[in-house]
Amino acid sequence: MIALIVILVIVVALVLWGVGAYNGLVVLRNRVKNGWAQIDVQLKQRADLIPNLVETVKGYASHESQVFTQVTQARAGAVAAANDPNATTQQRAAAENALSRALVNLQATAEAYPQLQANQNFMDLQGQLKGLEEKIAYARQFYNDVVMKYNNRIETVPTNIIAGLFHFEQAQPFAADEASRQVPQVRF
Protein backbone atom coordinates (compact mmCIF):
# COMPACT_ATOMS: atom_id res chain seq x y z
CA MET A 1 0.00 0.00 0.00
CA ILE A 2 2.84 2.43 0.85
CA ALA A 3 4.60 1.56 -2.40
CA LEU A 4 1.44 2.47 -4.33
CA ILE A 5 1.20 5.81 -2.53
CA VAL A 6 4.88 6.54 -3.26
CA ILE A 7 4.41 5.68 -6.94
CA LEU A 8 1.26 7.82 -7.09
CA VAL A 9 3.08 10.77 -5.48
CA ILE A 10 5.96 10.40 -7.94
CA VAL A 11 3.56 10.25 -10.91
CA VAL A 12 1.64 13.31 -9.68
CA ALA A 13 4.93 15.19 -9.11
CA LEU A 14 6.13 14.32 -12.63
CA VAL A 15 2.82 15.41 -14.17
CA LEU A 16 2.89 18.69 -12.22
CA TRP A 17 6.49 19.25 -13.24
CA GLY A 18 5.62 18.53 -16.89
CA VAL A 19 2.71 20.95 -16.82
CA GLY A 20 4.89 23.61 -15.20
CA ALA A 21 7.70 23.08 -17.71
CA TYR A 22 5.30 23.22 -20.64
CA ASN A 23 3.63 26.38 -19.35
CA GLY A 24 7.02 27.99 -18.76
CA LEU A 25 8.04 27.26 -22.35
CA VAL A 26 4.76 28.68 -23.66
CA VAL A 27 5.26 31.86 -21.62
CA LEU A 28 8.78 32.30 -22.98
CA ARG A 29 7.68 31.58 -26.56
CA ASN A 30 4.99 34.25 -26.19
CA ARG A 31 7.54 36.70 -24.79
CA VAL A 32 9.70 36.07 -27.86
CA LYS A 33 6.71 36.85 -30.09
CA ASN A 34 5.93 39.95 -28.05
CA GLY A 35 9.56 41.07 -28.23
CA TRP A 36 9.49 40.78 -32.01
CA ALA A 37 6.18 42.66 -32.15
CA GLN A 38 7.76 45.51 -30.16
CA ILE A 39 10.63 45.70 -32.64
CA ASP A 40 8.10 45.62 -35.47
CA VAL A 41 6.19 48.61 -34.06
CA GLN A 42 9.36 50.70 -33.83
CA LEU A 43 10.50 49.66 -37.30
CA LYS A 44 7.11 50.64 -38.75
CA GLN A 45 7.38 54.09 -37.14
CA ARG A 46 10.86 54.48 -38.58
CA ALA A 47 9.69 53.43 -42.04
CA ASP A 48 6.88 55.99 -41.84
CA LEU A 49 9.28 58.78 -40.80
CA ILE A 50 11.93 58.16 -43.46
CA PRO A 51 10.06 59.57 -46.51
CA ASN A 52 9.62 62.91 -44.69
CA LEU A 53 13.29 62.99 -43.77
CA VAL A 54 14.36 62.15 -47.32
CA GLU A 55 12.12 64.84 -48.81
CA THR A 56 13.49 67.45 -46.42
CA VAL A 57 17.10 66.58 -47.26
CA LYS A 58 16.27 66.41 -50.99
CA GLY A 59 15.28 70.06 -50.93
CA TYR A 60 18.81 71.03 -49.93
CA ALA A 61 20.91 68.32 -51.53
CA SER A 62 19.13 67.44 -54.74
CA HIS A 63 22.34 66.34 -56.48
CA GLU A 64 22.86 63.52 -53.95
CA SER A 65 20.43 61.26 -55.81
CA GLN A 66 22.42 58.06 -55.17
CA VAL A 67 21.94 58.45 -51.40
CA PHE A 68 18.20 59.06 -51.83
CA THR A 69 17.85 56.08 -54.11
CA GLN A 70 19.74 53.90 -51.63
CA VAL A 71 17.51 54.99 -48.73
CA THR A 72 14.33 54.57 -50.78
CA GLN A 73 15.33 51.08 -51.94
CA ALA A 74 16.42 50.03 -48.46
CA ARG A 75 13.14 51.29 -46.98
CA ALA A 76 11.17 49.43 -49.68
CA GLY A 77 13.12 46.25 -48.88
CA ALA A 78 12.46 46.62 -45.14
CA VAL A 79 8.74 47.24 -45.67
CA ALA A 80 8.51 44.28 -48.06
CA ALA A 81 10.25 42.01 -45.55
CA ALA A 82 7.96 43.27 -42.78
CA ASN A 83 4.87 42.53 -44.87
CA ASP A 84 6.08 39.10 -45.99
CA PRO A 85 4.59 36.51 -43.63
CA ASN A 86 7.21 33.99 -44.79
CA ALA A 87 10.20 36.23 -44.05
CA THR A 88 12.54 34.79 -41.45
CA THR A 89 14.06 36.77 -38.62
CA GLN A 90 17.37 36.77 -40.48
CA GLN A 91 15.76 38.17 -43.63
CA ARG A 92 13.99 40.88 -41.66
CA ALA A 93 17.20 41.71 -39.79
CA ALA A 94 19.18 41.94 -43.03
CA ALA A 95 16.60 44.30 -44.56
CA GLU A 96 16.54 46.48 -41.44
CA ASN A 97 20.33 46.52 -41.23
CA ALA A 98 20.50 47.69 -44.87
CA LEU A 99 18.07 50.47 -44.02
CA SER A 100 20.15 51.48 -41.00
CA ARG A 101 23.27 51.72 -43.19
CA ALA A 102 21.37 53.82 -45.74
CA LEU A 103 20.19 56.16 -42.99
CA VAL A 104 23.77 56.65 -41.80
CA ASN A 105 24.68 57.73 -45.33
CA LEU A 106 21.68 60.07 -45.46
CA GLN A 107 22.64 61.67 -42.16
CA ALA A 108 26.23 62.05 -43.31
CA THR A 109 24.99 63.72 -46.49
CA ALA A 110 22.83 66.08 -44.45
CA GLU A 111 25.83 67.09 -42.33
CA ALA A 112 27.50 68.51 -45.44
CA TYR A 113 24.76 71.16 -45.75
CA PRO A 114 24.90 73.76 -42.95
CA GLN A 115 21.66 75.42 -44.10
CA LEU A 116 19.90 72.07 -43.74
CA GLN A 117 21.27 71.68 -40.22
CA ALA A 118 19.54 74.97 -39.35
CA ASN A 119 16.17 73.84 -40.77
CA GLN A 120 13.75 73.26 -37.87
CA ASN A 121 11.73 70.64 -39.77
CA PHE A 122 14.89 68.64 -40.46
CA MET A 123 16.03 68.97 -36.86
CA ASP A 124 12.64 67.73 -35.62
CA LEU A 125 12.67 64.77 -38.01
CA GLN A 126 16.26 63.93 -37.11
CA GLY A 127 15.38 64.06 -33.40
CA GLN A 128 12.42 61.75 -33.95
CA LEU A 129 14.61 59.36 -35.92
CA LYS A 130 17.25 59.36 -33.20
CA GLY A 131 14.61 58.58 -30.58
CA LEU A 132 13.22 55.77 -32.72
CA GLU A 133 16.68 54.30 -33.28
CA GLU A 134 17.21 54.22 -29.51
CA LYS A 135 13.85 52.50 -29.01
CA ILE A 136 14.69 50.00 -31.76
CA ALA A 137 18.03 49.24 -30.10
CA TYR A 138 16.29 48.69 -26.77
CA ALA A 139 13.59 46.51 -28.36
CA ARG A 140 16.24 44.42 -30.13
CA GLN A 141 18.12 43.94 -26.86
CA PHE A 142 14.92 42.93 -25.06
CA TYR A 143 14.03 40.51 -27.86
CA ASN A 144 17.50 38.95 -27.87
CA ASP A 145 17.44 38.56 -24.08
CA VAL A 146 14.09 36.76 -24.23
CA VAL A 147 15.28 34.60 -27.13
CA MET A 148 18.33 33.60 -25.09
CA LYS A 149 16.18 32.61 -22.08
CA TYR A 150 13.78 30.69 -24.30
CA ASN A 151 16.54 28.88 -26.20
CA ASN A 152 18.36 28.07 -22.95
CA ARG A 153 15.19 26.57 -21.53
CA ILE A 154 14.64 24.48 -24.66
CA GLU A 155 18.19 23.15 -24.60
CA THR A 156 18.67 22.45 -20.89
CA VAL A 157 17.77 19.31 -19.00
CA PRO A 158 15.06 18.48 -17.96
CA THR A 159 12.84 20.96 -19.87
CA ASN A 160 14.40 19.87 -23.15
CA ILE A 161 12.35 16.68 -22.80
CA ILE A 162 9.08 18.64 -22.74
CA ALA A 163 10.34 20.94 -25.51
CA GLY A 164 11.12 17.95 -27.69
CA LEU A 165 7.80 16.24 -26.99
CA PHE A 166 5.81 19.34 -27.95
CA HIS A 167 8.07 20.47 -30.81
CA PHE A 168 9.23 23.79 -29.39
CA GLU A 169 11.75 25.23 -31.83
CA GLN A 170 14.59 27.62 -31.16
CA ALA A 171 14.00 31.29 -31.88
CA GLN A 172 16.54 33.27 -33.89
CA PRO A 173 18.08 36.35 -32.30
CA PHE A 174 18.12 39.66 -34.13
CA ALA A 175 21.73 39.84 -35.26
CA ALA A 176 23.68 42.38 -37.25
CA ASP A 177 24.90 41.15 -40.59
CA GLU A 178 28.54 41.45 -41.61
CA ALA A 179 27.94 44.51 -43.81
CA SER A 180 26.41 46.50 -40.94
CA ARG A 181 29.54 45.95 -38.85
CA GLN A 182 31.59 47.89 -41.38
CA VAL A 183 32.14 51.63 -41.04
CA PRO A 184 30.08 53.30 -43.77
CA GLN A 185 32.01 55.02 -46.53
CA VAL A 186 30.60 58.42 -47.34
CA ARG A 187 31.95 60.35 -50.33
CA PHE A 188 30.96 63.81 -51.52
TrEMBL record:
One of its GO terms (cellular component) is membrane. InterPro entries: LemA-like_dom_sf, MamQ_LemA. It is found in: Membrane. Pfam families: LemA (PF04011). It is a single-pass membrane protein. Keywords: Membrane, Transmembrane, Transmembrane helix. SUPFAM superfamilies: LemA-like. Belongs to the LemA family. This is LemA family protein.
